[in-house]
């Protein structure tokens, strides 16, 4: 399986950002050192962001309803990680998938290996956005992760409302737009016993998208945890 993944999503020999010799997960030494890993001892207990205090961060305390148990992420969403994810999502640089999936796997193995998930699912794209982009980055990452950790991946959500890109919107604007954007898909007949699911996306910013998706899944009686590359 590892050889197949390397064939489909090879780790490049040159740095994915600057083309110097890659030494770590597809990065050169300089670019790798510019990434900021989230310290497991200094993070929000709910959303997983880097946080120097104990308990939950100010963002999570402001949220009135949270439908996922917790989120965990591998790295901070700094300028270097933003550049990398933008190249992947918006420039179609799919060779980055393998390197990015390693961050997901790192966060999973650090925080979630004892939880025994029944399934992995992912934040869906609207059909129009999928046609524009050519692939759903969350699905692609989720499927690579599922193969690496041996958990089945199912499409449990659909996006029923086309929205403009959320990256430049604030919290309230996102909430207003996302309210009726998602719906549940049937649980596969072959897996009726799904109870605990891991919801994957690339970035946790305000958490609005993940929380809306988690609400739909929770309404189906599922216990939802979330996982992203960056926070």
From TrEMBL:
Gene3D superfamilies in alphabetical order: 3.40.50.2020
SUPFAM superfamilies associated with the record: PRTase-like
Domain Double zinc ribbon intervals: 4-61
Pfam families reported in the protein's UniProt record: DZR_2 (PF18912), Pribosyltran (PF00156)
Top-rank lineage group of the source organism: Bacteria
CDD domains membership: PRTases_typeI (cd06223)
Record domain Phosphoribosyltransferase: where: 133-222
PANTHER family registered for this protein in UniProt: DNA UTILIZATION PROTEIN YHGH
Name used for this protein in its record: Double zinc ribbon domain-containing protein
